[in-house]
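Appendix B. One record, verbatim.
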Amino acid sequence: MKTNAVIINQYGGKDVLEDGVVNLPELGEKQVMVQVKATSVNPIDWKLREGYLKEMMPFEFPIILGWDVAGVITEVGSAVQNFKVGDEVFARPETTRLGTYAAYTIVDEALLAKKPTNISFDEAAAVPLAGLTAYQALFEHGSLKASEKVLIHAGAGGVGIYAIQLAKIAGAKVYTTGSEKNHALLKALGADEVVDYRKKDFWDVFTDIDLVFDTMGGDVQTNSFKVLKENGRLISIVSAPDENLAKEKGILAKSIWLQPNGEQLSKLGEYLATSKLRSVIGATFPLNREGVYKAHELSETHHAVGKIVIQGE
């Protein structure tokens, strides 16, 4: 079938975004077709658009960006067991050239989760990529446990908002960095202490940290080694940490890449359904070229609060 979508036919700046129509492949036996009610913007979207990831992801054009979806199932494959037409779902689909800035998108059944009835499509669409990234960084790779001290950089960012809440649910002592205007929000999400990075160096404030969740890279990552206790952990989602520095201090330090996971997303869905976890949406835009252009423009500032959502029809 054909779907309307916002596409790119070449790599470049925001000007390469265009409205288009794309042919979707036949539905696989364990796949579903989802009518997109909402998607969201993540930095990977515009990094791929710029061409930074073309060697890692050598996709053919046209490319539909976007790797979050919340919507309604309109068709199911012959072997789909746990979902039916009409179900409201959300997902972080596989990373393919046919993303979610589209009227319709295809998702593997194993990556789907039921959308909680108490949250909107916008709120659900904000969760998958960022929420799963936070979950996997903290627990799969960071082995965060109750009563441990975790430092989450850029707490008001798309990933940070979920990381703070998930760490608090786990019973950790949560520290974060953020500009002063976001302190009330960060404390409401569960942060025990917030440092304004514009006024203080976090390494002068925090000590004996068990786990650092690095969403920034660069000097922030390097200086994070100063606050970690011996045998601490540093998990980055931006760049590979300095191996020599890690070895010198006896620290587990690694860079991770998100793996889509329907079971983990369903776990996040349970937290959303019981209001232990919530989305923070900083801005919404329509699903068309102009809307995506403005959404990318905001994301590229690195100062968006929470998630940027793109609303489908």
